[in-house]
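ok here's Late endosomal/lysosomal adaptor and MAPK and MTOR activator 5, seq below lol
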Amino acid sequence: MESSIMESRLEFEFNEIQRQENVTGCVLADPKGLCLLASPNIKNEVAGLVTAIAQHASLIEPSGNTQPIVLLENDTRQCLIHCDEGITTAIFKKIQNN
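and the structure came out like this:
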């Protein structure tokens, strides 16, 4: 029963992220980098990569209880990576032109 509540919560949060303006994709991964949920345009393999990035960032910035947020950016897109409660989230966004 508890796992179905967690699954429902993850699905709800995942859908809320995808509804945000400029978000083009999202992936959620477990602590081992296995894909829990991914937008149709995101390959499942990305889950392992973003988990590894989050884990390495936490070694670079060992600030205690808070996990760092990693921002990867190019001219047109951003990828925000964060780990919380064992779930790594990567949000892909297009950059607004001013």
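fwiw The mean pLDDT is 90. kinda neat tbh
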